[in-house]
Amino acid sequence: AHLDRIGAVDGAINAFLHVNTDEALLVAAGVDRARADDEALHPLAGVPIAVKDLIVTRGQPTTAGSRMLEGWQSPYDATVVRKLRAARMPILGKTNLDEFAMGSSTEHSAYGPTRNPWDLDRIPGGSGGGSAAAVAAFEAPLALGTDTGGSIRQPGAVTGTVGVKPTYGGVSRYGAIAMASSLDQIGPVSRTVLDSALLHEVIGGHDPQDSTSLTDPVGALVEAARRGEVEGMRIGVIRELQGEGYQAGVLARFHESLDLLRSAGAEIVEVSCPNFRYALGAYYLIMPSEASSNLAKYDGVRFGLRVVPDGAPTIERVMGATRAAGFGDEVKRRIILGTYALSAGYYDAYYGSAQQVRTLIQRDFAAAFEQADVLISPTAPTTAFRLGEKLGDPLAMYLNDVATIPANLAGVPGLSLPGGLADEDGLPVGVQLLAPARQDARLYRVGAVLE
Ligand code: GLN
């Protein structure tokens, strides 16, 4: 059914870069599903899933949305993919993204933009626009994304889906092509809070192959999503993440969510996180710095694209020609920014101060979580913008991440869920919940009440 749906709508949406038409594999998983008496069968067995094309999969290509990896196949599975296979979840295909996950609109993909199923002239968010659009358009019931500064949550917000960035270290990053290693996290994309909890339990938990993996067990997330209760909980509204720059229809739906929580017995308090105003600036130094280092491996020698220019094929010339041809403009912009910020003489002024801001943001969160069990804000300041609208203005594009970035800088978990449609344009609005590190269960407990 999902392959049929993809065949019918993906020509217009372009959520998939690769579709796995290996029916035998899909059917085999379905047959397992039918053996319902098998106690060992996972509840998601047989449920197909789409995987963001930044996560490596054996037997299917992985491009990272870049010409640099066109046609490349990984010799191994990411840990999360291995876990999907162990749960007998067929992998439906690989989804579109901004090149190397750099972007907020999926327009920076080397394979053409993904379109928002709600309005094909609008962006589906980014970088994980393919995963969110696939789930929103019923091409896949579930998907995996990666979130470095909001790439699971912001696409969720603008496509009316649920997206979760787990606690940093809660889900293994082994096999996720690194963008900014201290910020990256893999997480679920779904249509309901419970579905994300089910998937989160499959992919979470300790992995010795990821040195930043937490050793705690993944926690009772499904139980929290089933329980859905906020009686006596304190929910903190972040003062700095509302007001100026936020669309009226986004704020209206956000305030309705607060009313809903209040009527379900939660106490709504206001918290202040004054250093969040520096989060965007710190992120756009730390993220390009780490990316410039992580992307140094695309040298035309080890794997992926190799361009040999005319004349003497020296290592520098092959490397230069390969990187000039293989990377798109946004990736080049960030590599240049990152290498500049890390260079001797500028390191302390840029990278060093960004790291200090990061500490201040962590302290803001710590203080806020003394006053509230869960924090809440709009996920993105606006609903989906039009394709091309912000393409010529990188700063305007970066501003869309203002509410999602603090969680990555502090390593805390976040969940975005649909809050209804904005009056002015009829497009989905996202509401974001944030919890202290390792308290991902709280997101599901509160999210289930808002759904
Ligand atoms: N939109 C943000 C960026 O461009 C976040 C990307 C991400 O989370 N991968 O960096």
Automatic annotation (TrEMBL):
GO cellular-component term (any): glutamyl-tRNA(Gln) amidotransferase complex
The keyword Nucleus is assigned to this record: no
EC primary class: ligase
Pfam family, one: Amidase
Keywords per UniProt: ATP-binding, Ligase, Nucleotide-binding, Protein biosynthesis, Transferase
Alphabetical GO biological process terms: translation
Substrates-to-products reaction catalysed: L-glutamyl-tRNA(Gln) + L-glutamine + ATP + H2O = L-glutaminyl-tRNA(Gln) + L-glutamate + ADP + phosphate + H(+)
EC number(s) from the headed UniProt entry: 6.3.5.7
Active-site residues (renumbered): 52, 127, 151
Amidase domain boundaries: 1-443
Molecular-function annotations in GO: ATP binding; glutaminyl-tRNA synthase (glutamine-hydrolyzing) activity; transferase activity
InterPro entries: Amidase, Amidase_CS, Amidase_dom, AS_sf, GatA
Function: Allows the formation of correctly charged Gln-tRNA(Gln) through the transamidation of misacylated Glu-tRNA(Gln) in organisms which lack glutaminyl-tRNA synthetase. The reaction takes place in the presence of glutamine and ATP through an activated gamma-phospho-Glu-tRNA(Gln).
Subunit structure: Heterotrimer of A, B and C subunits.
Recorded family membership: Belongs to the amidase family. GatA subfamily.
Name the record gives this protein: Glutamyl-tRNA(Gln) amidotransferase subunit A
